[in-house]
Amino acid sequence: MYLLTTSRKPGRKTRRFAKVLARFFNWRYINRGKLSLEDLSNLSEAFWIISEVKGNPAILTLYEKCEKRLEISFTLSNVKKLKMDDSAVVFQGKLPFDPVIFGAIPQTKAGIKLARKVDFRKRVVVKGNEWLFFYDEEMIFKLRVLRIIQNFRQSPRTP
């Protein structure tokens, strides 16, 4: 299970989005406070941080063992706050990476076949650079992805 937190002093919109996103993907949300990256890595080996630009949530970054693995820059629509269950998430559409990184059903042959046969309550419909998040046919929010950076170079380590 992933951990999700925000930048150090998030605004109301960012906190609300973080809580809804964590609930959607069945992640654990924690208030960041003064926790450093090392403190967060002690709580979970892999975690996500939502950063903001001009008071709005704008960057979602995945860290594994205190190193950046994926960064998604986006703009966000209004976020509806709904009660959601712990069901699995399925992505529909083409992504530049496997959605299993979000803890969703993988886009393998078996995963795609399962997504066709089972009606999942939580769906992310990918249409180009727009990701539409649905729960029981109701759209919760929409992300417009501006940029995805993955495969960060590993910094040289000294023995």
Number of domains: 1
Mean pLDDT across the residues is: 90
Q: What's the name of the CATH homologous superfamily? A: Brix domain
CATH architecture, please? 3-Layer(aba) Sandwich
Q: Please give the radius of gyration in angstroms.
A: 16 Å
Number of strand elements: 9
- H/E order of the elements? EHEHEEEEHEEE
Strand order of the largest sheet: 2-1-3-4-5-9-8-7-6
CATH class: Alpha Beta
Q: What is the strand content?
A: 35-45%
Poorly predicted runs are 155-159
Molecular shape: globular
The helix fraction, in percent, is 10-25%
**According to CATH, what is the topology?**
Rossmann fold
3D architecture notes:
- There is one protein chain.
- The chain contains three helices and nine strands; from the N terminus they run E-H-E-H-E-E-E-E-H-E-E-E.
- It has 159 residues and is an alpha/beta fold.
- The chain has a single domain, classed as Brix domain (Rossmann fold, 3-Layer(aba) Sandwich).
- Strands 2-1-3-4-5-9-8-7-6 form a nine-stranded mixed beta sheet, sandwiched between helices.
- A hairpin with a 2-residue loop joins strand 4 and strand 5.
- It is globular and about 45 Å long.
- Mean pLDDT is 90; it is low at 155-159.
